[in-house]
């Protein structure tokens, strides 16, 4: 009985939910501020991947796109893990490589 | 130099009207001449919080319709000779007024008062635009709830678009014990997210409800309560005084809370 009371007193439910709120708010505020619709985000993501994929091979499962806001400035963060650099594309632009 | 300040928020029910009433009374107690404008047309409430609801004869709409002078519409507070209210009409809809008319009202009051404080309606529609139109400064009220903070951010964006340069923030209904247990967003978190300067923090306190019931702003009390003191401090900060923020956390740093925090690892 006493144990139960103590457990309720120190209930773990909702522990650190303040942190959840902070993390979720950060994301939602960044999205609100950018004014980008999910469709535009998706289109941008597809195009960026397309361009980057011409040069390197990306790991699609580890790829991350997000918007972050700091001091009322919004940044698009794209994390594109590179599996390997594509040789074929580099060969077609020898000048760039030498310079 | 007089100041025209709009008290606003994104979400409704976060304490705009309570803030307006208390700041007005606190500034009047500091010897400033203050007029409070209820811009919530169709849903007035500021009169109730000030305990002036029985004394309204004319409203802002009557002034605009040339049915009375602005001086006649102003309701004087008997307790504080420096404080007056320009009431909103209740029997008309929100659309009874537009931005130009709001500016004309403020223009008629401008030279007679040190502070013109406009209580903005909730939401970001026409009522918001009217209330904001004549303002030079804004005070945003938020609570530490996710929806209130998110909506406050939206409003900050709109105020910046309206070229309101000076924006400050009041965090209302803070529950220190929940912040300490990491179950509530802290004031620091809110400031980090919204990036506007803080002008006041108010604890979640039953005394605020009691003061509303009585129609007597907390700052009018002889011996100030903690929230009353917090409101008075905000008025002093508006006046440019450097007043440290009350430490609500210290009061909750009791032995039980320390043990609880240790057990929870928070």
Short characterization:
In chain A, 55% of the residues lie in helices and 21% in strands. In chain A, 6% of the residues are buried.
Question: What would you say this structure looks like, in words?
Answer:
The complex is a heterodimer of chains A (99) and B (266). Chain A is 55% helix and 21% strand. The longest helix of chain A is centred in the first third of the chain and has 18 residues, at 17-34. Chain A starts with a helix and ends with a helix. The model of chain A is unreliable at 90-99 (pLDDT under 50). Chain A is α+β, with helices and mostly antiparallel strands and 99 residues long. In chain A, 6% of the residues are buried. Chain B is of the alpha/beta class and 266 residues long. Chain B has helices at residues 16-29, 46-50, 60-64, 70-73, 99-109, 126-132, 146-161, 176-180, 187-194, 206-214, 226-238, 248-251, 255-264, and strands spanning 3-8, 34-38, 75-76, 83-86, 115-119, 137-142, 166-174, 198-203. Chain B has an 8-stranded mixed β-sheet with strand order 3-4-2-5-1-6-7-8, sandwiched between helices. In chain B, a hairpin with a 6-residue loop joins strand 3 (75-76) and strand 4 (83-86). In chain B, helix 1 (16-29) packs across helix 11 (226-238) and helix 5 packs parallel to helix 6 (126-132). The mean pLDDT of chain B is 92. Chain A binds chain B through residues 9-10, 12, 14-19, 21-22, 24-26, 28-29, 32-33, 69, 71-72, and chain B through 146, 149-150, 153-154, 156-157, 178-179, 181-186, 189, 193, 195, 260, 263-264, 266.
């Amino acid at each position: 009985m006493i144990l139960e009371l103590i457990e309720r007193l120190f209930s773990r439910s909702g522990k650190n939910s303040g942190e959840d709120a902070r993390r979720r708010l950060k994301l939602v505020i960044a999205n609100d501020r950018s004014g980008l619709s999910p469709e535009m985000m998706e289109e941008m993501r597809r195009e960026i991947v397309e361009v980057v994929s011409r040069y390197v091979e990306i790991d699609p499962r580890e790829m991350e796109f997000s918007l972050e806001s700091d001091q009322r400035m919004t940044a698009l963060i794209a994390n594109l893990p590179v599996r390997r650099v594509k040789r074929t594309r580099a060969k077609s632009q020898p000048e760039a490589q030498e310079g | 130099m007089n100041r025209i300040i709009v008290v606003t928020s994104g979400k409704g029910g976060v304490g705009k009207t309570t803030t307006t009433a208390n700041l007005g009374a606190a500034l009047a107690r500091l010897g400033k001449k203050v007029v409070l404008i209820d811009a919530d047309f169709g849903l007035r409430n500021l009169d109730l919080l000030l305990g002036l609801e029985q004394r309204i004869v004319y409203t802002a709409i009557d002034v605009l319709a040339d049915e009375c002078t602005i001086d006649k519409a102003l309701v004087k507070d008997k307790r504080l000779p420096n404080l007056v209210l320009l009431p909103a009409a209740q029997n008309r809809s929100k659309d009874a007024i537009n931005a130009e008319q709001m500016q004309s009202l403020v223009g008629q009051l401008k030279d007679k008062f040190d502070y013109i404080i406009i209580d903005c309606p909730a939401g970001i529609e026409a009522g918001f635009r009217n209330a904001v139109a004549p303002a030079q400064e804004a005070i945003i009220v938020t609570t530490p709830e996710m929806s209130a903070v998110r909506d406050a951010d939206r409003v900050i964006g709109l105020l910046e678009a309206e070229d309101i340069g000076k924006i400050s923030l009041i965090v209302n209904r803070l529950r220190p014990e929940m912040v300490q247990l990491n179950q509530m967003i802290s004031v620091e978190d809110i400031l980090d997210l919204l990036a506007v300067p803080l002008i006041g923090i108010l604890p979640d306190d039953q005394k605020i409800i009691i003061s509303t019931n009585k129609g007597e702003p907390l700052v009018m009390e002889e011996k100030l309560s903690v929230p009353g003191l917090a409101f008075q401090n905000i008025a002093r900060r508006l006046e440019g005084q450097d007043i440290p923020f009350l430490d609500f956390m210290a009061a909750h740093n009791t032995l039980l809370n320390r043990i609880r925090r240790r057990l929870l690892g928070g």
